[in-house]
Every structure is written in structure tokens, then in C-alpha cells.
Write a structure and sequence with these properties.
alpha+beta; 3-stranded antiparallel sheet; two-stranded antiparallel sheet; globular; binds iron/sulfur cluster
Length: 305
């Protein structure tokens, strides 16, 4: 159970192929499958680090690491199964990372799906929570969530999910995964707070998009689509095409549920142009609010709560 997971794209994601499993937005709600506990989440395994890394007489070759149990058959899967695999052929191979937490959606189908009214959205900050005392583990919420960000805990026999570290948010601190991220890739704030950097990235500079807005849940996590270096032509010359195909990004990211595919492609191109032009401004000695936000390091710059 990973309340946050980081997927490599292209890849199947976690749980496996979650984008094809459906959710409450699909017409036939009765036929949405539950992720298969073994095949889609995989079986966790341990490595013999204690043997391989011991110093006296030990042989600390990575090749001596043996997983136990050895992943095999249909259970051979894990949250990082596709890590860094990507697509394309050298020198034009590519991949990028997609961190995923619960989107604390504005219109959360997990909440709608629960017959026990165990799921609620807090008025004060929009965080979506499961009341563990009301949950009976029916798992309709897992079927309802198209992002598959609710997990069944077979020990507690209840469903569980990311709580957006609400006790920290109440203290106006950033959620833990955002605060601890060494890449400092997260900004946290309220969408309507015009002074927050989240507002500036989403509404002022318009460089952040939703993941699969066509699921119609109005997810509240936004992503800046990845930039990538240009491809090399067969003759070894740099082209003007980005290595990560824009078409692939447009299938994942957009502004609203009713945007057409062509509009999404145009937006990805526009965002790339905006960032590129602001970078050039800074390279030639100027300043840019957007680039300042994108390279911000301190928590006060990244979290406005
Ligand atoms: S991402 Fe899924 S679990 Fe989270 S609020 Fe949206 S529908 Fe519910
Ligand atoms: S916001 Fe908090 S609860 Fe949610 S994934 Fe990040 S660290 Fe975990």
C-alpha cells in the first residue's frame, strides 16, 4: 500500500494498468473491476542485504542480491516494476517520473460510491478522508476512484488512502511527501489564494495541468508537463522534436474534462514555449517570476498555507 507512489512513464503504473480499470465516471458502474491484489499490486519481496553487505568476508556485489520470494508468474509486479525502462531507441530513448497521491478531488467519486457515508471532504481545506470507524471494507470506493488511490488494508479490513497529512496542514506546514522531497518538486497552497505560488503556476502563468481531467473528478493535484531535449535525426543532427512525444503527454494531461485532444496538444506546446521563453529571458540576464518559482528551494517559497 503506497499512499504516494512514483511511476516511470511510459509504463503500466501502480496498480498495474490503473488507467484502464475505470471508475465512477464510466457509464456501466456495475462492471468496474477491483484491482487484483496479487497481479496488479504484485507481491512484495525482500533482498538479502544483510548477507551481501556484511563486511567481514562478505562479497558486496550487487549481483549477489537475491529477492525472496523470487517474483514469478502473474504476481511478478511491484510499484517500481517499470522503473527507468522508458521507450524509444538510443540516442532518442526517453522516460519521466509521475508522482501520484490522492488528488483530493473537488467532485470525488470515492465519496459518492461509499454506501456507508464513510468518506467525507473537509470544508475548511478540501482534504478527502475516510472515517475508519464507519468503513466496513466494502471497497466500492476503490472501484469508484479512477486514479485507484484507495487501498484495501486486509489486516484492518478497511480501505485507506492518503490523508494529505491534515494534522500538518492544520499547523500550516507542508504535507510530508512535499516537505521531504529532495527534488523540491512540490508546491502546496490554496487555489484561490492569488498570492500563493500554486495559484501563480496554475492560474497566472498557466503552466500546470490536471492528470486525466476527462475522469470528471476535478483533481486538485496539478502537473507541469515535462520538458525534454530534442531528438537526433538519423544523420546525427538535432531536430526540433522533443524526445517525449507531445501526443503522449496530451493523452495524460489537460485543463478541463471537456477539452479536445487537439486543444490538449496545443496547451502542452504552449506550456513548453512559455517555460522556454522565460528561461531564455533569465539566460540573457533578465529576471522571471516563473523561473524564480520553479527553482524555489525554501519551504516558505514552496508552501503557502
Ligand atoms: S483521487 Fe480517488 S481517492 Fe482521491 S479524492 Fe479523487 S476519487 Fe477519491
Ligand atoms: S500527503 Fe501525507 S499522507 Fe498523503 S502521500 Fe504525502 S505524506 Fe502520505
Amino acid at each position: 500500500m503506497y499512499w504516494i507512489n512514483v511511476e516511470t512513464r511510459p509504463g503500466k503504473g501502480y496498480p498495474k494498468n490503473w488507467e484502464t480499470q475505470g471508475g465512477w465516471f464510466t457509464a456501466d458502474r456495475n462492471n468496474i473491476p477491483l484491482p487484483n491484489i496479487n497481479e496488479d499490486y504484485g507481491a512484495p519481496w525482500e533482498y538479502n542485504h544483510h548477507e551481501v553487505l556484511k563486511t567481514e568476508g562478505g562479497d558486496s556485489q550487487a549481483s549477489n542480491l537475491i529477492p525472496s520470494p523470487v517474483p514469478s508468474g502473474s504476481n511478478a509486479y511491484a510499484s517500481n516494476w517499470d522503473e527507468d525502462v522508458g521507450k524509444g531507441t538510443f540516442p532518442n530513448s526517453y522516460y519521466f517520473y509521475l508522482p501520484r497521491i490522492c488528488n483530493h478531488c473537488t467532485d470525488p467519486p470515492c465519496l459518492e460510491a461509499c454506501p456507508r457515508q464513510a468518506i467525507y471532504k473537509r470544508k475548511e481545506d478540501g482534504i478527502v478522508l475516510i472515517d475508519p470507524k464507519r468503513c466496513r471494507g466494502y471497497r466500492y470506493c476503490i472501484k469508484g476512484c479512477p486514479y485507484k488511490k484507495i487501498y484495501y488494508n486486509p489486516v484492518e479490513k478497511i480501505s485507506q488512502k492518503c490523508i494529505f497529512c491534515y494534522p500538518r496542514i492544520e499547523q500550516r506546514k507542508g504535507n510530508f511527501c512535499a516537505a521531504q522531497c529532495v527534488g523540491r518538486i512540490y508546491w502546496v497552497g490554496y487555489a484561490e489564494d492569488a498570492n500563493s505560488n500554486v495559484y501563480k503556476l496554475v492560474n497566472k502563468w498557466k503552466v500546470a495541468l490536471r492528470l486525466h481531467p476527462e475522469y470528471k473528478t476535478e483533481p486538485n493535484v496539478f502537473y507541469i508537463p515535462p520538458l525534454s531535449p530534442p531528438t537526433y535525426s538519423f544523420a546525427g543532427k538535432l531536430t526540433t522534436s522533443p524526445r517525449i512525444p507531445i501526443e503522449m503527454l496530451a493523452k495524460m494531461f489537460g485543463d478541463t474534462y471537456d477539452q479536445s485532444y487537439d486543444q490538449r496538444v496545443a496547451r502542452i506546446r504552449q506550456i513548453s514555449d512559455i517555460i522556454q521563453s522565460e528561461r531564455e529571458k533569465v539566460s540573457s540576464g533578465g529576471s522571471s517570476e516563473l523561473i524564480d518559482i520553479l527553482i524555489s528551494r525554501s519551504e516558505t517559497e514552496r508552501f503557502q498555507l
